[in-house]
Every structure is written in structure tokens, then in C-alpha cells.
Amino acid sequence: MAEKKNKLSEFESMSFEEAINELENIVEELEGSDVSLDDAVNAYERGAKLKNLCQVRLNEARMKVEKIKDFDKEDK
């Protein structure tokens, strides 16, 4: 159980830029080299988690921008 929590913390502490860079590296690795099936599946699983993290970070940023726009409209 502690291992699962550590993995969550790893992803939660990543910035959007770190996650997208790692995701790009995973894609390049899968496209460009001989990867065993197990390694490919593990990389795909990690890539899916990174993709979800990026989506969460983008949604958070979008909501912040919407709040700023709403606040700006109220000031006028």
C-alpha cells in the first residue's frame, strides 16, 4: 500500500512540463527501439497516467483562467 502512495505522490508532484516531457520520451522510446512486450505495456501504463495528469493540470489552468476572466468582467 505504501508503494502505491509513493507512486501517487510522484505524479502529484510533477509539473505539467515534466509530465509532458516524460510522456514524449515514452512515445519516442516505444516508436524507435526494440522494446519487450512487458516493457512496452509498463511504458504504456505509465504514459496513460502521465496523460491523465497532463489533462488534470490543463483543466486546473483552464479553471484559473476562467476565474480571472470572470473577476475581470466584474471589475468593469
What's the layout of helices and strands?
Layout: H1 2-12, H2 16-32, H3 37-75
Helix pairs in contact: 2-3
Describe it:
The chain is mainly α. It has a single domain (14-75), classed as Exonuclease VII, small subunit (Helix Hairpins, Orthogonal Bundle). It is built from three helices and no strands. Helix 2 (16-32) packs antiparallel against helix 3 (37-75). The radius of gyration is 17 Å and the shape is elongated. The mean pLDDT is 86.
Percent helix range: over 70%
CATH-level-2 architecture = Orthogonal Bundle
User: What's the multimeric state?
Assistant: single chain
The description of the largest β-sheet is: none
CATH class: Mainly Alpha
CATH fold field value: Helix Hairpins
End-to-end span in angstroms? 52 Å
Overall geometry comes to elongated
Low-pLDDT regions: none
Average pLDDT number: 86
What key attributes describe this structure?
elongated, 3 helices, mainly alpha, 76 residues, Helix Hairpins
Short description:
The protein has about 80 residues and is mainly α. Helix content is about 90%, strand content about 0%.
